[in-house]
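anyone seen this seq b4? input:
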Amino acid sequence: MKKLIAAMLAASAFGAFAELSVDEIVNKANEAAYYAGSDGRAEVEMSIIDKSGSARTRKFALLRMNTAGGSQKFYVYFKEPADLYKQVFLVWKEVDEGKEDSRWMWLPALNLKRSIAPGDKRTSFVGSDFVYEDVSGRSLKEDAHELIETTDTQYVVKNTPKMPGDVEFSAYTVRIDKDTFLPRKAEYYDKNGKLYRTVEATQIETFQGFPTVTESVVKDLNTGGSTVNTFTNVKYDIGLKENIFTERFLRRPPREVTR
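predicted toks r here
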């Protein structure tokens, strides 16, 4: 009996020791959501739906490449509709504290490269309910993280901005799957503490061993609108070259997005 009790106490102590810290949880979630493989490609169909049910569609190819020190580069090439054809959105994502991400939009009809100011990263992405920051993800260093709930299947983390004047929300919570560490649902609260926006991963599939969100839905609870992103032809570790993510290829899209 004494040996059994000792074994149970040891198991309990090991379980407590093995519990992840909130920083470990959010880092694993960030890795799962944005860092699968060394690079990746997907086709995306975006449906923007207003409160009456009317829908507009955008189609684009998305490239992503991991670079030194955890930084990343993203390349979005629009194929439809006609007024967005050949438009390109480019992101250089920084992870070092104090460094801002760089974002550009190439507007071929105007032969113009437009910089997206850091203060505009929380504004609408091509008229959808997603924001520019959603494409590449929010830096973990911009928020304070608190584990507020643990269930059998999920961690629930509250995230509070360190610079509240820079964003429209007071806080947001994220439900993170314990098995895959993919964020399953984020809920954003305004300055008065009212829930106004949700982002949910509604479909998950596995590609090359990486659990991957293949459908995500954002809802604007103030306007009644929503946007659905559907991801197809997902591939990882395809050997992208870093020079794709430069100004040269804003004007001349690479075959990795045009084919």
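Residues 10-17 have pLDDT under 50 and may be disordered. The longest helix spans residues 2-18. kinda curious what u guys think
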